[in-house]
Amino acid sequence: MDIADVRRRVEEHFSLGGKLEATYYGKWAAGTRKHTVVSPVDGEPVADVMLSDTTAYEDAVKASTRAFEEWREWPAPKRGQLIRKIGERLREERDMLGLVVTLEVGKTITEGQGEIQEMIDISDFSLGLSRQVYGLTMASERPHHRLYEQWLPLGPVGVITAFNFPASVWSWNSFIAATVGDTVIWKPSTKAVLTAIMVMRTVAEVVEEESAPPIFTMVAGPGVEMGEMLASDPRVPLISFTGSVRTGRRIAERVSSRLGRTILELGGNNAAIVSDKADMEVALKGVLFGALATAGQRCTSTRRVIVSEKIYSEFVSRLVKAYSSVRVGDPSQEGVLVGPLIDREAVEKFTNAVKRAEEEGGKVLFGGRPKTVDGLRGYYVEPTIIEARKDMEICREETFAPILYVFKYRDLREAIEIHNSVPQGLSSAIFTTDLREEEEFLSPHGSDCGIANVNTSTAGAEIGGAFGGEKETGGGRESGSDAWKNYMRRQTVTKNYGHDLPLAQGVRFDI
């Protein structure tokens, strides 16, 4: 299979002729602004989309608000059954939806299908969650009193997603939010709007078949306009935003000014420490996957590797050798591990980052240039390894590209210092077979990230754990564990079943 085959299959299966509607609120509606989807694989147009406008936004929010009033009354297990049926439909469409991801954002076939599989996995998780929305019972200090908490649906939730995970991140938020009784307004990236439309078509079919209200709505419009409308809208009590630190700050300011809530999943500048006590084969595979998966366009991509001076020469030489064997090109072809960057602007940022690194004293050990792939006009670059110094400012920034900065360390304390020296705090890893080093890395003075891995990559989080990071990554948590609480409101309940009115703290109020 090549990208021409993918394009043909997607066009036939999803009927891409004409202009596609990008607004859904129980029905599909056309906007007023045309947007042409271009594949980063070959630089060729895929489809024309009519983006949402302000009228469409207002219709979608109103529909989501009305739907919430009905949906919150559905018993949670019944809501979970609907999400289960969505998961079943996604199983049927997994391969075709995965091809849309490959065509639109340039992921390999296996990564594209893995993205849809992640949606299926979170639907399974949501089914279980629907019978486990637990609250605590506390001991009251007053006689004949019962004290407990309950969790209630919050309202219409806004979910703003990025291009790099155009389907799964939406489901992390939306399937959990819907299971606990919320409705969801989706603002996808215009860089991945085709995937969003096809996912919403699939999901909406099930919702309509089950005679449920439009619990999922979509407004696919320009990022600044639609994103800020959502962030400023008091009818939307929670905004979940995935994207850059700069945009996340602006979203947070808008939402906090109206005392709303946010779940922020912002930049990652993730590092892996490779100890001299590491299993080198495992470490090499972990660093390679972390640095090169999705062409370095994951928020969890490994951007820095910190290597013990005792094995530095051997590890780096093997890393360079491995990079030289990696195939870059059409992600739909077997054997290709690194596809394109998302667009021309991303290539320019890659080039500028390499230039800055060299100006700051870095040494390019491999790659460093844009790459031409025969027969394709896509946006390709060479996977790049740069030997870095601790004082290089470019290493403190996140560049969404396959650039790996290599550092040398003397002892674990220095390695952790280098690791924690950046403003972002999403994912981290250490490769070691030494229990003491592992525990040091996981201690309070170890990794300062929201995700810590031992002998596995910084990339590739499972849906069962809460996903998110610290510092400039934003502090948000999505997906598994108890992240569901972010989408609900907590209510503490006190019941007096006695015949008197005793007060807490021994306060007396006698009449």
Structure description:
The structure is a single chain. This protein has 511 residues and is an alpha/beta fold. It has helices at 3-14, 54-71, 76-105, 109-129, 168-179, 193-209, 223-232, 245-257, 280-292, 312-324, 344-359, 412-419, 435-441; strands at residues 19-21, 23-24, 28-29, 33-38, 45-51, 137-138, 145-153, 156-160, 183-187, 216-219, 238-242, 261-265, 270-274, 302-308, 363-366, 370-371, 380-381, 384-387, 403-409, 424-425, 427-431, 451-454, 466-467, 470-471, 478-479, 488-496. Strands 3-2-10-9-8-11-12 form a 7-stranded mixed beta sheet, sandwiched between helices. It has a 7-stranded mixed beta sheet with strand order 15-18-19-14-13-21-22, sandwiched between helices. The chain is globular. The N and C termini lie far apart (85 Å). The relative contact order is 0.13. The model has no long low-confidence stretch (mean pLDDT 97). GO terms for molecular function: aldehyde dehydrogenase (NAD+) activity. This is aldehyde dehydrogenase (NAD(+)). InterPro entries: Ald_DH/histidinol_DH, Ald_DH_C, Ald_DH_CS_GLU, Ald_DH_N, Aldehyde_DH_dom, ALDH7A1-like.
Write the layout of secondary structure elements.
Layout: H1 3-14, E1 19-21, E2 23-24, E3 28-29, E4 33-38, E5 45-51, H2 54-71, H3 76-105, H4 109-129, E6 137-138, E7 145-153, E8 156-160, H5 168-179, E9 183-187, H6 193-209, E10 216-219, H7 223-232, E11 238-242, H8 245-257, E12 261-265, E13 270-274, H9 280-292, E14 302-308, H10 312-324, H11 344-359, E15 363-366, E16 370-371, E17 380-381, E18 384-387, E19 403-409, H12 412-419, E20 424-425, E21 427-431, H13 435-441, E22 451-454, E23 466-467, E24 470-471, E25 478-479, E26 488-496
Parallel strand pairs: 1-5, 8-9, 8-11, 9-10, 11-12, 13-14, 13-21, 14-19, 18-19, 21-22
Antiparallel strand pairs: 2-3, 2-10, 4-5, 6-7, 7-26, 15-18, 16-17, 20-24, 23-25
Domain Aldehyde dehydrogenase: 32-493
Protein name: aldehyde dehydrogenase (NAD(+))
Pfam family, one: Aldedh
